[in-house]
Every structure is written in C-alpha cells, then in structure tokens.
C-alpha cells in the first residue's frame, strides 16, 4: 500500500510540474544579458541565489524553503523586466514567501530581521508590497512542485524497494547537491523530475548499487523520461559536482550559522539600517502591447521618484551591495575547505 501511494503521488506531481517551470524565453534573455546592461544577468541571478542559500542557512530554514524561494525567483525573473536595483528586494521577498509556505510559524524570521541581516536597502513595507506583486504575477501558485519534491519521493521509493542498508544513500548529500545545482541558472531549465533523477542516478553510480540502479530505471520508465534527456542532464550535473567540489569554488555553508558581532560592528549595522531610505513604491503596469512576445513585462521605478523612466538614469545601474555578513559565509577561512557533500 505504501509503494502504491508513493507511485500515485509521484505520478500526480509529474503531471503538475510543467505549471511551475520558469519561462524558457525569459531564462534565455537572462543568459544573453551582459553584466553592464541595465537588466538582470545570469551571473547576477546566480550570485543572488548563493546569498539566499547563505540566508537559508543563517536562519535555519530547510532545503525545501531554499528550493521554493529559487523557484519563485526564477519564475518571476523569467516573466518580468527587472532592473538590478530591485533584485535584492525581490529575492528576499521570495525567501520570505517560501518560509511562510514551508516553515513552522514560530521559526519564520520577521521582515525587519531579514532586511537587517541581508543588509538590503528597503523597508518592511517594500517587502510586503513586493511579496504581493510576486504572488499576483504568479497567479498565487506559489507552492510549487520542485526537484526537492521528486528527490524525496525517489529516495523513499528507492529505500522501500531495496534490501541494502538505508544509510548507504544520504538524503542530506542529495539535498546539498541539489542546492549547488540551483546556484546555476542552466538547471532552472531542467524539468524537476529529470533533475532529481539525474542527482539520484549520479549518487547510485557513486555507491555502485545494482539494486538501486534497477529501481531508478523503473522510475524512469514509469515517468517515460527519455534516455537522451536524462543523459544530457546527468552530464551537466556531473560537471557541476566536479566544479563545486574543487577547492577554487567558494560555497555557502550548509549548517545553521550563529552571527557573532563586536559591539562596534553591531552599532554600525544598527546605524546603517535605520539610515537607509525606503525603496520607492513600485507602480504596476500592464503588458506593453507594442513589445514583442519575447519581451518581459516591465516593472520599473526610480530610486528617487515614482515616475522615473523604465531604463533608469543615464548613469550605470546601481547594483545593491552584496551583504558583508554573507561574504564571510563564503570565506574559505570561515567555512573551511571541505565540500558539504
């Protein structure tokens, strides 16, 4: 009965996953955007996802919260025309939405804490308004079917049908590998079911389990995933894991962090937080009928006025400063040189 229930749940999620995929045209636009442009680039997006990983660890949020936040971020960026100065507010809003969907209410950090720890230049009111915009633009379909969903189902199914020791496959290791993949925008194009199966197959190959390999192949046939599609993503996953495991790769920690501040640092943070001007209210506009089908919807506002032009001032766009606290998370001296998986 348990096996039947899991397979039925697997099939139901498989039929729903396409609803929550980011628009591929929008992702392609992000990948083709140069860093000096006035739009979000893929590199800028990837850096922000790494920051979300660090914040997830800092506040003790689960992997599911992080994966949900990245899904919200990618879906929103793939359909909207965003200026870099708004990215921090959008990313933190996605994390807060995801936390409210996944975490226990007592464990959800307050908006002021999120803003203070991330050192972003917007207010709690801006955060609430951005959350509303994101939810509306995504048609309130916030709780998505993600690769995390499939990874847990695959893991349960595999352990249910194998006679090998349950400790032979670490779910924590699979989750860490999934988080590493999501820090690269290319994996946002993968179907969650295929990405999760690629990670599972990679781990099964590493532990050399014939029994588990047969189960993975059975799952593949059940979901009718083509061999070519699975092979393509397995190769990308393998390359990502190789790159991520190298000593040259800086990586966020995967443990809950404790932030210890000197009195001087705490005083500076306190002063800078309360001296930050509010992010101007972002006006919502309709789709630009004159734009091509491939263009993203504009969501623009000036830093000093509500009626600034879509492209912003003639000077180079202002990229929000990366949080100083988050920088320390990726410092090898702080984290150690070990890979979380």
Rg (C-alpha, Å)? 21 Å
The count of domains is 2
The CATH class label of the largest domain is Mainly Alpha
Q: Distance N terminus to C terminus?
A: 33 Å
Structure in words:
One of its GO terms (cellular component) is cytoplasm. May play a role in growth regulation and in negative regulation of cell cycle progression. This protein is mainly alpha-helical and 341 residues long. It folds into two domains: 206 residues, Cyclin-like (Cyclin A, domain 1), CATH 1.10.472; 99 residues. The protein is 56% helix and 2% strand. The chain has a two-stranded parallel sheet with strand order 1-2. The longest helix is centred in the last third of the chain and has 19 residues. The two termini are 33 Å apart. The C terminus is likely disordered.
């Amino acid at each position: 009965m348990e096996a039947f229930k899991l397979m039925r749940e697997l099939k139901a999620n498989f039929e729903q996953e396409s609803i929550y995929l980011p628009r591929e045209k929008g992702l392609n636009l992000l990948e083709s955007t140069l860093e000096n442009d006035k739009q979000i680039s893929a590199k800028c997006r990837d850096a922000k996802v790494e920051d979300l990983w660090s914040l997830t660890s800092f506040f003790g949020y689960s992997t599911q919260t992080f994966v949900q936040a990245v899904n919200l971020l990618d879906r929103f960026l793939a359909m909207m025309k965003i200026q870099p100065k708004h990215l921090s507010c959008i990313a933190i809003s996605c994390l807060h939405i995801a936390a409210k969907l996944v975490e226990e209410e007592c464990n959800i950090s307050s908006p002021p804490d999120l803003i203070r720890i991330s050192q972003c230049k917007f207010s709690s009111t801006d955060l609430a308004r951005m959350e509303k915009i994101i939810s509306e633009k995504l048609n309130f379909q916030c709780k998505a079917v993600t690769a995390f969903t499939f990874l847990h189902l695959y893991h349960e199914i595999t352990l249910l049908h194998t006679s090998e020791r349950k400790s032979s496959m670490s779910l924590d290791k699979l989750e860490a590998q999934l988080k590493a993949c999501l820090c690269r925008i290319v994996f946002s194009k993968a179907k969650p079911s295929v990405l999760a199966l690629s990670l599972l197959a990679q781990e099964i190959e590493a532990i050399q389990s014939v029994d588990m390999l047969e189960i993975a192949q059975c799952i593949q046939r059940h979901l009718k995933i083509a061999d070519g599609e699975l092979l393509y993503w397995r190769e990308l996953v393998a390359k990502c894991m190789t790159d991520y495991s190298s000593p040259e790769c800086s990586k966020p920690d995967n443990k809950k962090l404790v932030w210890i501040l000197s009195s001087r640092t705490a005083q500076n943070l306190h002063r800078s937080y309360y001296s930050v001007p509010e992010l101007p209210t972002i006006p919502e506009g309709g789709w630009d009928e004159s734009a091509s089908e491939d263009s993203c919807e504009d969501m623009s506002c000036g830093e000093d006025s509500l009626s600034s032009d879509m492209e912003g001032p003639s000077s180079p766009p202002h990229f929000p400063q990366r949080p100083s606290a988050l920088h320390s998370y990726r410092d090898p001296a702080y984290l150690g040189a070990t890979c979380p998986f």
